[in-house]
Amino acid sequence: MTNCKICGSESTPCFNALILNKYDTVYYKCTHCGFIQTDAPYWLQEAYGSAITKQDIGLINRNLVTFPILSLLINYFFDKARKFIDYGGGYGMLTRIMRDKGYDYYRFDTYCENIFAKNFDAENPGTSPDYELLTAFEVFEHLEDPSGELEKMLNWSSNIFFSTEIQPANVNSPADWWYVMPETGQHIALYTIKALQVLGKKHGFNFYTNGTNLHLFTRKKINSWLFKLIMKYRAAKVLNLFTPGNGSYLMKDFALIKSQ
After folding, report:
1. In contact, 94 and 135? CB cutoff 8 Å
2. CB atoms < 10 A from the CB of 216, how many?
3. How many CB atoms neighbour CB 164 within 10 A?
4. 45 and 19 in contact (C-beta within 8 Å)?
5. Which domains does the chain have, with CATH numbers?
6. What gap in Å lies between CA 21 and CA 181, rounded to an integer?
7. pTM of the predicted model, to two decimals?
8. How confident is the model at residue 52 (pLDDT cuts 50, 70, 90)?
């Protein structure tokens, strides 16, 4: 038995899995909030030998689907004239897409090489949050200390839009849910809606979710019905047709990079 990293309640073993196909590891489930965590993940340095695993074949599609949803979220609920940051931003693809669409976006990632947004890595956060919104797509399931990492995110922004898959009912083995992915060794924190509610409340957030994979922590109070509507890709694509766009940063960025 161990204590839950989200709520501190007792967590009991729910299944074992072979991490990286060689380390037999216990997964624990919280008796209160349902959060699933692994044993202390001593294998992380090995797991992040390649930050983006070969199993992540959905990376490009995920970014393409994300853009219309994210742009509406910004336009409807936040100040689109301010700066934005993609935390755990990987190759910089989303940062480049958002800059091309007219949002002053930056990237931060301690593990992965920046390929597509090389000149737009975020500077260290100041004493007050500089960014209107922080995005963290497919990051939360990688966190060894979710509460501590959330505190770090708050140094950048007090609004956090993120993706992580919500547990289905009755996960009793890795075979019950594809998202466990023990062969990569990177998914060490698996959430329920209740776990995210507890985590958000602990840090003073209002919590909004589509109930499956897209979630928002914010100190703002927003229209929850509208939030759920724009989280739907098809609806977001249509609504984007009627939403004023921003001027692209593409040529400005080209001139900046050329001058350097």
Report:
1. yes
2. 23
3. 23
4. no
5. 52-163+191-259 (3.40.50)
6. 10
7. 0.94
8. low
